[in-house]
Amino acid sequence: LATQKATKKWTARYNNWNLIIAELSIVFEDRLKDYIF
Fold it and tell me: Is residue 17 in a domain?
């Protein structure tokens, strides 16, 4: 039950998601290149 509630929260979209992805792609470029680029 707790997992189901947590899953609902995780599907919420963040307002600055594009900014977050941009920053993560700089920091973790080698890890994210197969998924984003």
Answer: yes
Total domains in the chain come to 1
Q: What angle do CA 13, 18, 20 make, to 5 degrees?
A: 85
Q: How far apart are CA 3 and CA 15, in angstroms?
A: 24
- Top-confidence residue, 10 or 33: 33
Torsion of CA 32, 18, 22, 24, to 10 degrees: -50
Residue 21 maps to a domain: yes
Give the pTM: 0.49
Which tens digits make up the pLDDT trace of 21-32?
889 889 998 888
- Residue at 5 is within a domain: no
